[in-house]
Backbone:
């Protein structure tokens, strides 16, 4: 009986797993994203990026972020799940190890006024957008 339980555990856990469908971006968010990535070309997705040099975070929606490394390089990250509160100014706390941020690193959002967690998600792949060389 005990072996049966261990063999069935993965099936039971799979039944609990739901699928996440991100909300489509609003026309305003799409315009902001298009403006931020104008003139840049998407590259191959990367699972990790370096924390150094410091990157500037720009929130497009509760599930789309931009990390601006320089005027020529910006990474787009589509979060796994939705970190509620990002668009209203909540603080993003990324739990990662080492000098890189990677796909799957757990992220929470915290209200700056109350300190209460408002959302949780994970980082997705980092898609580099680069200004093409002339």
Residues:
């Amino acid at each position: 009986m005990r072996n049966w339980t261990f063999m069935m555990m993965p099936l039971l856990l799979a039944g609990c797993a739901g699928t996440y469908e991100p909300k489509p971006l609003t026309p305003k968010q799409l315009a902001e994203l298009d403006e931020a990535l104008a003139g840049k070309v998407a590259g191959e997705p990367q699972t990790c990026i370096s924390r150094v040099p410091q990157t500037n975070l720009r929130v497009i929606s509760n599930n789309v972020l931009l990390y601006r490394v320089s005027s020529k390089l910006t990474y787009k990250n589509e979060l796994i799940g939705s970190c509620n509160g990002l668009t209203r100014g909540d603080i993003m706390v990324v739990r990662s190890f080492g000098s890189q941020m990677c796909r799957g690193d757990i992220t929470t959002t915290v209200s700056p006024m109350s300190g209460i967690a408002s959302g949780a998600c994970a980082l997705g792949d980092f898609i580099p957008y680069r200004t093409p060389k002339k």
Strands lie at 41-42, 48-50, 56-59, 64-70, 73-78, 91-95, 100-102, 106-110, 117-122, 126-130.
